[in-house]
UniProtKB/TrEMBL annotation:
UniProt keywords, alphabetically: ATP-binding, Nucleotide-binding, Transport
Every ABC transporter domain range: 7-248
Protein name, as recorded: ABC transporter ATP-binding protein
Keyword Iron-sulfur recorded: no
UniProt-listed CDD domains: ABC_Mj1267_LivG_branched
Length: 248
């Protein structure tokens, strides 16, 4: 595996009964890149994410992260190595405030979540660090509001800042723009771009104009198989991709 390869997926398959949802998928994600996984509904994108983070067990194949074979590791062992995902379904704690959700992630990172006493100074530091992740996603006005009060798009923004607060080496983002208004899409896209300077990002995204402007490389899945891979221009001209998207 080359020096600059952050994640390598080798011949990954996942079968549900007789149905192959992911069929011999190989994929290399370069360190520091924003790599998109696209494809029509049911192509196997979310299943791939579930396999990479071991929420599902592959039928066959290997997953190599930063040179280490993580295929047999647990989801928490994988997260501890710095490979963190955000979920398509909101995973923030609804009854906790925006600030508390991000503080919890920060404490989890330092293994400090069970401390029952903190000095005023360490609490202030914790809150300041949390705010540095909350401000860029535009959630400062909702700092002390429970997550349940947020719109769907703002919950996604909170989920994104929680993921960033874990300071992963690599983030898997499953449709981070789903449910967001135009104004928020621009802000979160800029944030993903800024984050990619320090980490690697694999993103499932339906909005092709976002993929075109944000992503360095694109892998297209169709019916569980890799149909094309390359930069946006080359994959968008691929016959199989055009057929899969336009249904012709
Ligand atoms: P995508 O994210 O590209 O829309 P998915 O990975 O969610 O696709 O699903 C790929 C295919 O696998 C779909 O046909 C889906 O119905 C099927 N599938 C996903 N999870 C399961 C499961 N746990 N059991 C059976 N079939 C599943």
């Amino acid at each position: 595996m080359g020096e600059d390869c952050e994640l390598e997926v080798r011949n990954l398959s996942c079968q549900f009964g007789s149905f192959k949802a992911v069929d011999d998928v190989s994929l290399r994600v370069r360190r520091g890149s924003i790599h998109a996984l696209i494809g029509p509904n049911g192509a196997g994108k979310t299943t791939c994410f579930n396999l990479i983070t071991r929420y599902l067990t592959p039928t066959s194949g290997n997953i190599i992260f930063r040179g280490e074979d993580i295929t047999s590791k647990s989801p928490s062992q994988i997260a501890d190595r710095g490979l963190v995902r955000s979920f398509q379904i909101c995973s923030v704690f609804q009854s906790m405030t925006v600030l508390e959700n991000v503080c919890l992630a920060l404490q989890r990172k330092t293994g400090d979540q069970y401390a029952f006493w903190r000095s005023k100074k360490s609490l202030k530091n914790l809150h300041e660090t949390a705010v540095s992740y909350i401000e860029p996603v535009g959630l400062l006005p909702w700092l002390h509001k429970p997550a349940s009060d947020l719109s769907y798009g703002r919950k996604r923004a909170l989920e994104f800042s929680v993921t960033m607060a874990l300071e992963p080496k690599m983030m898997l983002l499953d449709e981070p723009f789903a449910g967001m208004g135009h104004e928020d899409i621009g802000g979160v896209a800029a944030l993903i771009q800024a984050e990619a300077k320090d980490r690697t990002i694999l993103i499932v995204e339906h909005n092709l104009s976002v993929v075109q402007s944000l992503c360095d490389r694109v892998t297209v899945l169709v019916r569980g198989k890799v149909a094309a891979e390359g930069d946006y221009k080359s994959v968008s001209q691929n016959d199989q991709v055009v057929r899969a998207y336009l249904g012709v």
